[in-house]
Design brief:
With about 260 residues, the protein is of the alpha/beta class. It has a single domain, classed as Rossmann fold (3-Layer(aba) Sandwich). It is about 35% helix and about 20% strand. The protein is built from eight helices and twelve strands. A six-stranded mixed sheet has the order 1-2-8-9-6-7. It has a four-stranded parallel sheet with strand order 10-5-11-12. β1 and β2 form a beta hairpin. α2 packs across α8 and α6 runs antiparallel to α7. The longest helix has 19 residues. The protein is globular, with a radius of gyration of 17 Å. It starts with a strand and ends with a helix.
Length: about 260
């Protein structure tokens, strides 16, 4: 299934093959995630979406998670809202509660990022070939860069049986809501678009065109985040410790479940 919003919006392609068929029969995808969005790094399954398999029109969906199964955590919000920073505080305080995986991207590493740690950095040609070979469960294009999650990354997270964070874009959230994954939905937003723009410029990592694309996308994401029912909680990151406390309090019941396993 391919979902295209517009030339400036996220394009998401969810690819579910025999690998997904095998998993849906034996392991709940609701207990894992890996990243494929525009930000930071760990334990993330971008978009596990309803997908049409083969040419028969049959639909493959993740199995409904049992009542006591640890639910994944969906983090969504504009680039520059602080999702990665808050996530790092969460995993630092509860290192045993979360699994980790590394996604692929065609964007250039930012200062301080390491290949194989934050992402697997590859060329567009390499990633396109891998997608066509069926090596990816999902892939997306955001701000002219490709992101994706390999089957191997998902498998490694599934085997850990821990909470997984899905750091994804708005279109990924829309797709996940069509599945039976049943995650906890959190939207993290900046205090305003003006403050977000300043944060993006302070990074000094993006061109002017890239900044404008991110701001255009951020406006749409913040409009989606403001719609009642789209998220379980909306957190304004105007002060880091306050925002982290809100997320910590919200997800603590799921963290407690991991201690009983």
């Amino acid at each position: 299934m391919v979902v295209q919003h517009s030339s400036n919006m996220l394009t998401v392609t969810a690819i579910v093959s025999s690998f997904a068929r095998r998993l849906s029969g034996s392991v709940s995808l609701s207990s894992c995630a890996v990243k494929g969005g525009g930000g930071g790094s760990k334990c993330m399954l971008s978009t596990t979406a309803v997908a049409t398999a083969g040419n028969k029109g049959d639909t493959v969906q993740p199995a409904m998670s049992p009542v006591n199964t640890v639910r994944p955590l969906v983090l969504c919000g504009p680039s520059g809202a602080g999702k990665s920073t808050i996530m790092k505080k969460l995993t630092a305080e509860f290192p045993d509660a979360f699994g980790f995986s590394v996604s692929h991207t065609t964007r250039q590493p930012r200062e301080g990022e390491e290949d194989g740690v934050h992402y697997h950095y590859v060329t567009r040609e390499v990633m396109t070939a891998a997608i066509e070979a069926g090596d990816f469960i999902e892939n997306a294009e955001f701000s002219a860069n490709m992101y994706g999650t390999s089957k191997k990354a998902v498998q490694s997270v599934l085997e850990q049986g821990k909470i997984c964070i899905l750091d994804i874009e708005m279109q990924g959230v829309i797709l996940i809501k069509k599945t039976e994954m049943n995650p906890c939905y959190v939207f993290i937003k900046p205090p305003s678009l003006e403050i977000l723009e300043q944060r993006l410029r302070d990074r000094k990592t993006d061109s002017e065109d890239a900044i404008q694309r991110r701001l255009d996308t951020a406006k749409r994401e913040m409009e989606y985040g403001a719609v009642e029912g789209n998220f379980d909680i909306v957190i304004t990151n105007d002060e880091l410790d306050k925002a982290y406390t809100e997320l910590r309090t919200f997800i603590l019941p799921e963290i407690e479940k991991t201690k009983t396993k």
